[in-house]
Structures are given as C-alpha cells and as structure tokens.
Amino acid sequence: MARAPAPLRCKSRLARGGLGPRRAATVQSRLLAHTQLVLDQAAAQQGARSRLALAGAGARCGRRLLAGATHPELVLQGGGGLGLRMQRQFALGFAQGYRAIVLVGSDLPRLAAADLQQAFAALQREPLVLGPADDGGYWLIGLQRPAAALFAGIDWGGPHVLAQTLAQARRLALPFSLLDHQADLDRACDLVPWR
Predict the structure, then answer these.
(1) Which of 134, 147, 140, 95 is nearest to 121 (CA)?
(2) What is the pLDDT of residues 38-67, one digit of tens each?
(3) The domain containing residue 53 runs over which residues?
(4) Does 13 or 153 have the greater pLDDT score?
(5) Burial letters 99-113, b for 16+ CB under 10 A, else e
(6) Torsion-angle region of 120 (φ positive above 0: left; ψ -120 to 50: alpha; else: beta)
(7) In what order do the strands lie in the sheet with 2-3?
(8) How far is CA 173 from CA 79, 83, 167, in A?
(9) For residue range 106-130, what is the model confidence (pLDDT) as tens digits?
(10) Please, are residues 83 and 152 in contact by the beta-carbon 8 Å criterion?
C-alpha cells in the first residue's frame, strides 16, 4: 500500500519536519521503488502475486509507477481511513480467491524478501501475522481469511495501533504471530541512518 510520490500528496510529516514537500516526495519515490523491487523478488520466490494499492493518484499515475515492475498489478485504495482501505484490500483479494494475503507499506528502507517469506510462513500456522513497528503501529499485516472487525476501533496513526489491533484479535479469538520489529520512515529524524 502506497501513496503516490508527489509533493503535498505523501510523507506530510516528513515534509513538515524540515524536508519540504518536494524532497519528501523524492524520499517516497525511492522507498516505493525499493518496495517494488522487494515485492518482485518475493513474488518470484514464493510463486505469489504482488500489486500496488495506490492512494493519492489515479490509475494513470499508478501505471507509470509500475512501468519497471516485474509483476505489475494496480488497484486504487479508494476513500476512507486507513483501516477501511486495508479492509478493502483484504476483501478484494479474498473475493479473487487468494488464501493468504499480506499488506505492507512503502516506507520501509530495511524491507527484504525474507520478511515477506516469514510472513507467509507464519500464515501457514496462524490466521493473522503482524510486523510490529517501532512507533507503536505495524509495518505488515497478513490474514488467512477475512476479518473486517479486526480494523474497527483502532486509533490509526497513533502510538497504540499495534496494541489495539492485538486486543481486537484476542476479542475475536484470532490467533496471531509477530514478526521482528522494523522502523518505518515517517519523520526527518528517521532519515538519519540512511544519509
């Protein structure tokens, strides 16, 4: 899942943190290219399909972004909050017959194909897998089956997203597996290791 790498359409916290809209869009563009490369590698290794769920632009922009991808498939995220947009991607995939779906953001400089392999392996044991993020959210979520209620009552963008999601999973009696922590890139200080 990604926002289009265009000034004022992506990485608003990064832009406000001193980079400005143009440089923040450049960072988003590079992160998206990295994510696409990793998804292509993982798809080839797993025999899986990858797609770009795009927000902040239309299909024409999405096709341009996918021009170099090995497995180009594009869907638009649609409107609503993050939870609704993720729920929509899971519903679409399960309606198309997929047995396991993993969503990952496009702001993970350390993302590797092995991370996605671990997520799919975890989904063979548990119906839910999450990759905890250092900011209290998660960088990856995977499901074996639809679980729309999992996305209800979550304070998206706050420091308790992971904890609230795990509490919701327990209420739904949905066993889960956790991957290793990763740091996503949202603020100017998150760029320090990558300069």
Answers:
(1) 140
(2) 988 988 888 888 888 888 776 677 666 666
(3) 2-194
(4) 153
(5) ebbbbbbbbbbebeb
(6) alpha
(7) 2-3, 52-55, 74-76
(8) 29, 19, 10
(9) 889 899 999 999 999 999 999 999 9
(10) yes
Comparison of pLDDT for 180 and 187, the residue scoring more: 180
In degrees, to the nearest 5, what angle opens at C-alpha 143 toward C-alphas 139 and 145?
Answer: 160
* CATH number of the structural domain spanning residue 53: 3.90.550.10
Q: Enter the tokens of residue 141.
A: 């979520």
Of 178, 190, 177, 186, which is closest to residue 157 (Cα–Cα)? 186
Number of structural domains in the chain: 1
pTM of the model as a whole? 0.89
Distance CA 106, CA 34 (A): 8
* Alpha helices per DSSP H over the chain: 12-14, 20-46, 59-65, 82-95, 113-123, 161-171
